Amino acid sequence: MTPDQLARSLQLFLAEARTTNGAVVEDGQVLFDLSTAQYSISCERERCLLHLWSDERNVVRQVVDAAEDLQAWLLDSYRQALWAASS
After folding, report:
1. Higher pLDDT residue, 75 or 16?
2. How far apart are CA 49 and CA 21, in angstroms?
3. What pTM was estimated for this model as a whole?
4. Domain boundaries, given as residue ranges, for the chain
5. Do residues 65 and 1 make contact, with C-beta atoms less than 8 angstroms apart?
6. How far is CA 2 from CA 16, 24, 41, 44, 83, in A?
7. Alpha carbons 2 and 48: distance in angstroms, whole number
8. Which of 1, 19, 20, 22 is deepest in the core (most CB within 10 A)?
């Protein structure tokens, strides 16, 4: 996927996950409840950047690939694997 395609796909997924009890999980730990967390997605210099923040934490990940599996996405990033899941 190109960075622009990743950004569009992530935007659609996260908008829906916001209304369906979605969460972001990294290393087995829930980092963000998507019903309350904020996020932004941008494409800069041919990179797709995902910025997530809440009162507890703030992370930025460069997303390099994504695979959808049922109601979850596995994102490959330069920092760590990042799961965004909705239930």
Report:
1. 16
2. 23
3. 0.77
4. 3-85
5. yes
6. 21, 22, 14, 12, 19
7. 9
8. 22
Q: Are residues 9 and 66 in contact, defined by beta-carbon separation less than 8 angstroms?
A: yes
Collapsed DSSP state (helix, strand, coil) of residue 78: coil
CB-based contact 23:35 (threshold 8 Å): no
Beta-bridge mates of residue 51: 40, 60
CA dihedral (24, 51, 73, 77) positive or negative:
negative
What's the pLDDT tens digit per position in 36-60? 999 999 998 888 999 999 999 999 9
Residue with tokens 């990042």: 82
pLDDT: is 66 or 85 the higher one?
66
| Burial (0-12, 13-18, 19+ Cβ within 10 Å), 68 | exposed
